[in-house]
Known about the structure:
Layout: E1 4-6, E2 24-27, E3 38-45, E4 51-55, E5 58-62, H1 74-80, E6 97-98, H2 104-114, H3 119-123, H4 131-143, H5 147-161, H6 169-181, H7 193-209, H8 215-228, H9 231-248, H10 270-292, H11 308-324, H12 327-330, H13 337-348, H14 355-360, H15 364-367
Parallel strand pairs: 3-5, 4-6
Antiparallel strand pairs: 1-2, 2-3, 4-5
Helix pairs in contact: 2-4, 4-5, 4-6, 5-7, 6-7, 7-9, 8-9, 9-10, 11-13
Amino acid sequence: MTSLRRLRSSSDASDSGRPNRRQRLEAEPNSDASVAPLIRDELFYKDGGDCYLQVETHLFKIHRYHLTRGDASVFNDMFLLPSGTKPCQGSTESNPIVLAGDTAERFRGFLTIAYAEPLEFQVAQARLDQVPTLIHCAHFSHKYNITPLLLATLEAMVFALGSTPHLDPHVYISLLGLSKLCAGVRNGVNLPFQSKIQSAVKWGWVSRLSENCEFRQISEALDVGEEYDLHSLLIFGYSHYLEKMALEADALTDTGLLLSPFQNHTWLKPVHRLRILTGLWSQERTWSNFVATVPAFPAGHKCPKRNHNIYCVSAWEQAFRRAVTSPSVLAVPFGAFARRKLKLEAELKPAFESSCISMVLKLEDPLKGLKHGSNHFETAD
């Protein structure tokens, strides 16, 4: 049986330069050398704590109150178990509660939030840089059914995320995993936390991709979007990937097939390749159909001018034909669908100086024929 002795506290340490900031519980000389020594946690080895817990090789001394919040906490029953003549587990340094399957980092994240009293005020002060800690706390609270901490943590997380949080992709992925785990958790009549978190991740990632991201970064977003069925992220990701390829390609054929760099993108999964090529074909077909017919005036329109058909309709047809064949529009490469649409919009603006046209049409009306979104990237399964 391994016996443990307590080292001196940091206040008793001499100036000899020994590394006593991280205090250790070391085994006696006759202990099993294969057992790693426990490390007293720097942050959560609390004076006055009444509960000892071991997580990995770290020893925590905390106030058990934080583990027993809520009637359904797993720790409530654990502390009520009879111990007979032996001390209750967790009551001494040499007999800590061992939390198997957890990490010291996750438990430390839980305690960081648990000790940040009062929770109801901390929620409204949560910051984006605290999200990783909140994720750890939510996972631990969910695992051990500490409901008050779980709800407060999720509320704080939603507050911190805001609308378009810029985070590293691994944090986005962690948030989506947590949202799936907490799918049934909700507070009152509000939307489930899963929907709130996924929405924040989706638009935050879209905003991040709007910057000058590399192909691999977009591909990672596509992987996650497919896994979690995030339609908005997929639509933007595929469109952005295709447009980025079109603008950076060295060679394009007149049929719109990208010869480079698409063939060299070995990190793309088959589903991504299929959707990108499907989207390219769909966008080009949509463009061809759109430019073939001039958008008509609404039925029943009465122009205050005489000879409406001769002047107004004819002027609109000429303006449209001129816009779709203008050098600036034709110069946009295949695949850069959104850019081509913006160029066309700029070319059409002068036509709306006509009072007749502007009376019945808005600039965006004729552009509705250029459908966008998931329709371009849907494939037959």
